[in-house]
Amino acid sequence: MGKKPKPKHRKEDNSSPFDKARDELLSHIIHCGVLQAEPQHQKDWFDDTMEYVAERYGTLSDDQLDTIRALGERYCRPVKRHIEVGAAS
Question: What is the DSSP letter of 36?
Fold first, then answer.
């Protein structure tokens, strides 16, 4: 008979509620397809999703929730490419 594998121990999660809420929002952004949505649909999605986040993480302040939303909205913006001056002519 073989040895039984040892159970894997879960790494202790010392993340703050802010970190968890931010990470959850970014995960939702990736999985929900909001990156490809029109700006108005993104706004509506953020309104609904931030309401959920506020309920789920009730200890977060309004300022923290605003910061998390701003991070998510910034994540959804397209990357700006810097064009060199000589290349534009």
Answer: G
CA atoms within 13 A on the CB side of 58: 1
Number of domains in the chain: 1
Residue 44's domain comprises: 17-76
- Asked if residue 49 lies in contact with residue 75, where contact means CB atoms within 8 angstroms, the answer is no
pLDDT in tens, 22-78: 999 999 999 998 988 899 999 999 999 999 999 999 999 999 999 999 999 999 987
Return d(Cα 61, Cα 67) in angstroms, integer: 10
Q: Which residues contact 67 (CB under 8 A, 6 or more apart)?
A: 18
82 secondary structure, DSSP code: P
**Would residue 89 count as lying in a domain?**
no
- Answer yes or no: is pLDDT of 6 > 90: no
Q: Examine residue 53 and state whether it is found in any structural domain, yes or no.
A: yes
